[in-house]
Amino acid sequence: MSHAKRVTETLRSMGRICIEHDPEVFRSVLERIGDKWSLLLIGMLQGGPMRFTELLRTTPGISRRMLTITLRALERDGLVDRTIYAEVPPRVEYRVTELGLSLSEPVLRLAMWAADHQSAIIANRTAFDADAQE
Amino acid sequence: MSHAKRVTETLRSMGRICIEHDPEVFRSVLERIGDKWSLLLIGMLQGGPMRFTELLRTTPGISRRMLTITLRALERDGLVDRTIYAEVPPRVEYRVTELGLSLSEPVLRLAMWAADHQSAIIANRTAFDADAQE
DNA sequence: GCCTTAGGTCACCTCGCGGTAACCAGGCAG
DNA sequence: CTGCCTGGTTACCGCGAGGTGACCTAAGGC
Q: Mind listing the pLDDT tens digit for each residue in B14-71?
């Protein structure tokens, strides 16, 4: 059996076990991290702890409101850690926890897949649209 | 340097490269597969080709409309393949393509992470809520 | 003529995600 | 007293994702 074939087989059985057998667990996690900002913020924090305003500035397009909401949700789930420094002016730092870091591994694999196959997807998309055109 | 430490370092640099440096690519893929059903359907199809109604039955909660829309989008991006059998009654089979299968790897890792850490997340969540209560 | 069965499409409506902008706490500066 | 800084919170609102249920097509059976 070829390597590619074995990988396929392995994935198939993983698929059966992980998703087909218990879609709710997968769904619950997708609902959690599948929103507009969660994964992106997890990603942003890979480079080390960041402050609220820093995240606000460097995350393109996020609003103050959504940053608050998303960070709270991530904190609630134990994916990021929030530290308040009693200084003047006040300072708050966010960093990924161990759990958040463990999530990063599959997430970054997904990101790398994204980077690798982006062009293929765009090509498929335009081809499909061209077919549908006529 | 310990193994865990090295993994951490690797992830940090991957994070910097993949996400912090170029959030748009990651965002675009998240927008694509981050919807309510795409990843789940990709997952469902790991076990082999399935028919429309079969997916409708076995995917908990999906509506006929959303199944159609999501499958079309996946087909458009070249992630699944749609085969019509000119029989009576008509039969349509969906199967993941090579591209779809390559996506499955990171996705299934995510699913396994979900399964592994679900209880930890729930624990964190209840602890956080208990703190916020008082 | 009417039912069935598979695989959809269409019109309509709801609900909640997320954006905008104003407001707030609190400590220090002038 | 007024203003400024950070790190939020709150009220308001629009839009679009997604659910519901009716309808469609095409062949065959009765």
A: 545 555 556 677 777 777 888 889 988 988 898 889 999 999 999 989 999 999 999 9
Contact of A26 with B40, CB cutoff 8 Å? yes
Taking the CA of residue A56 and the C1' sugar atom of nucleotide C20, their distance in angstroms comes to 15
In this complex, the answer to whether residue B61 has its CB under 7 A from any atom of chain D, a nucleic strand, is yes
Residue B81 clears pLDDT 80, i.e. is over it: yes
Going along B14-124, which residue ranges are E strands?
50-51, 80-85, 91-96
Dump pLDDT digits (tens) for A52-80: 999 999 998 999 999 999 999 999 999 99
Chain A span 87-126 residues with beta carbon within 7 Å of strand C: 88-90
Beta-strand runs (E) in B6-62 = 50-51
User: Does the nearest atom of strand D lie within 7 Å of B64's Cβ?
Assistant: yes
Instruction: Give the CA distances from residue A14 to residues A27, B109, B111, in Å, rounded to whole numbers and listed in that order.
Output: 16, 9, 9
Omega before A49 within 30 of 0, i.e. cis:
no
